[in-house]
Amino acid sequence: MTNRREFLKDLAGATTGIFFASCGLASAAESIQPAATARREIAIGGRRLRTIDVHAHCVVDIRDLVKAYYDAHPIQSNASGGFVADPFADMKRPMFMNPSSVEARLRYMDQRGIDMQAVSLLPGYNYSYWADRELASEIVQRQNEQITQLCADHTDRFVGLGAVAIQHPELAVQQMEYAVKKLNLRGFEVGGSINGEELSAQRFNPFWAKAEELGILIFIHPDSFIEGARRFQGNGVLDNVIGNPLETTVALSHLIFEGTLDRYPGVKICAAHGGGYLGSYSGRADHCAEASPFCKPVKKRPSEYFKQQIYCDSLVFTAEGIRHLVAEFGADRILFGTDYPASMSSNRMGDDRGVDTILGVSELSDFQKADILGRNAAQLLGIKS
């Protein structure tokens, strides 16, 4: 493979029709942004703070690579009771491929006091865990190269969390090595399970070993809890409201109880949506580990993994929810996240308040707010002052 400098040079002169500005929800963002926006700067305790959103998505166009698969699987059941006949609906929004989508994204960030985003893929078809080794290699290469280009074009605003074909662990290890050392990606996003397999499955050990070796962040972002699809039908978008945090809860619980985090104590995980339900009920897991003969021994109380290896984002929507996460795990374990651009999409499940979500938690000290809004992420992602 070429090195990063050669890759970016070649890419800049290419005329392949691939637009790196696709990382953004421009159709919605453009409609609510003014022509120009003064950048909102955040100061805490009289000192300027760089704010970093660790939960911010993009879409890379892979339609040409996956068309044959979706032609053979034209309709997919939706857990909410509907059907998704076109998995590429988001890609067909008129501004997705327009370079102005990046400008719209930056204006959105400027309005809400967000200095940087750690950009990751929008879950769903972007994961493509069904793909065989050859196709998975092509998909991940395109995704990571486009995220890299976005970050290279705006080094002061974006860092990348790349894709990885974790369904092929040996390939994943190669992709991780290249993406970190050649493309300067700061970590990787994975789903809460892989084709029905838990992330704690033995065959994924090479992935966790490489993550520990590279010292990078693994962002676990669920794509609902597919086993609950029948019961999630009906009103309430329950596949998202309940399914997403449930998937994360199950994934983390297996990583703890199956010993994955004991085998790889240097692994660093950020779990989306406040880490699922463990933040509210980790005491039950602790009790099982301490008192029940049906819980396998682990090296620490389950809640302690949140104080050493697991982080979570702040996407719990209420000041009390954030206060509780801090009380349970500490402000040094919480990372600011908005779920951009979900606040502008049809399900409206992102947090559109930007930094005000954290600034408005009166129970937090200035030091704690600064940790959550940027300092924790800067340390984890290797973002220098």
Description of the molecule:
The chain has helices at residues 4-12, 26-32, 63-72, 100-111, 133-153, 169-181, 205-214, 229-232, 238-241, 243-257, 260-263, 272-275, 278-291, 319-329, 356-359, 366-381, and strands spanning 42-44, 47-49, 52-58, 76-77, 83-84, 116-121, 158-162, 187-190, 193-194, 197-198, 217-220, 268-271, 310-313, 334-335. With 385 residues, it is an alpha/beta fold. It has a single domain, classed as TIM Barrel (Alpha-Beta Barrel), CATH 3.20.20.140. The strands form four sheets. An eight-stranded parallel sheet has the order 3-6-7-8-11-12-13-14, with helices on both faces. Strand 6, helix 5 (133-153) and strand 7 (158-162) form a beta-alpha-beta unit. It is globular, with a radius of gyration of 20 Å. It starts with a helix and ends with a helix. The model is unreliable at 7-35, 79-83 and 93-98 (pLDDT under 50).
Fold topology:
Elements: H1 4-12, H2 26-32, E1 42-44, E2 47-49, E3 52-58, H3 63-72, E4 76-77, E5 83-84, H4 100-111, E6 116-121, H5 133-153, E7 158-162, H6 169-181, E8 187-190, E9 193-194, E10 197-198, H7 205-214, E11 217-220, H8 229-232, H9 238-241, H10 243-257, H11 260-263, E12 268-271, H12 272-275, H13 278-291, E13 310-313, H14 319-329, E14 334-335, H15 356-359, H16 366-381
Parallel strand pairs: 3-6, 6-7, 7-8, 8-11, 11-12, 12-13, 13-14
Antiparallel strand pairs: 1-2, 4-5, 9-10
